[in-house]
Design brief:
The protein has 211 residues and is an alpha+beta fold. Strands 1-2-3-5-4 form a 5-stranded mixed barrel. It has 2 domains: 137 residues, no CATH class; 66 residues, OB fold (Dihydrolipoamide Acetyltransferase, E2P) (Beta Barrel), CATH 2.40.50.140. 44% of the residues lie in helices and 17% in strands. The chain has 5 helices and 5 strands; from the N terminus they run H-H-H-H-H-E-E-E-E-E. The longest helix is centred in the middle third of the chain and has 40 residues.
């Protein structure tokens, strides 16, 4: 373990180690509820959690970069992990501690990491799609209309926020927006008025439980 730590923080491996630590930090804060995958979307159009590449889906390039419905955060995490592993092992067996020489090693390491990531994510994407389909069939999202949620991420009429519904003790996260001129702050309660299918979010308004 000590040897692995020593190798990880050598000059030749430090950049990829920092990259891996950033990925780990992302997942840690995501698990404790301080961050969420959907917050990465912002104003960037992501199609169902994966990068939309403007290529012919039947072409070699289109198939290469098509990860299906698998969230891009998962794809990137696998890539960084394999990139780190290949770089560490290559520098270790070559006895390299030079960052300059490591930069040359990074090129085939990136290619190799992408190939391994692609092979790993093909079955994962299929499993993820099946689970997602089963979930959508078992629990139709429009059924939540009329429910009261707790605002998890601040929202306006122009930008998606998130609300959390408690169903039989299980928290369910949904995308929400409010009416123009209104703001739903984090921690407040909101009533789900209607579901916008095209945007995949609910229109919600402030809810006062004492009314």
């Amino acid at each position: 373990m000590n040897e692995l730590l020593t190798e990880s923080f050598k000059n030749s491996n430090l950049p990829v180690t920092i990259l891996l630590l950033l990925v780990l930090f992302y997942w840690v804060i995501n698990l404790v509820g301080l961050f969420d995958l959907d917050m990465l979307h912002g104003d960037v159009e992501l199609d169902k959690g994966h990068i939309e590449v403007e290529t012919d889906s039947d072409s070699i390039l289109g198939k290469t970069f098509d990860f299906g419905d698998l969230p891009i955060a998962i794809v990137i995490s696998f890539f960084v992990l394999f990139f780190w592993m290949i770089t560490i092992l290559t520098n270790y067996y070559l006895g390299n501690s030079s960052l300059f020489f490591a930069l040359i090693i990074y090129i085939p390491a990136i290619i190799g990491s992408f190939i391994v990531t692609r092979l790993i994510t093909i079955p994962l994407a299929k499993i993820y799609s099946l689970l997602k389909l089963n979930t959508e069939e078992a629990d139709t999202i429009s059924d939540y209309t009329g429910s009261v949620c707790t605002v998890f991420v601040e929202t306006t009429s122009e930008r998606n926020g998130q609300g959390e519904i408690n169903r039989n003790g299980d928290p369910i996260r949904i995308n929400i927006r409010t009416y123009p001129g209104k703001l739903l702050s984090k921690g407040s309660s909101a009533l789900l008025i209607e579901y916008v299918k095209g945007g995949e979010y609910y229109i919600a308004e402030p809810y006062d439980s004492e009314k």
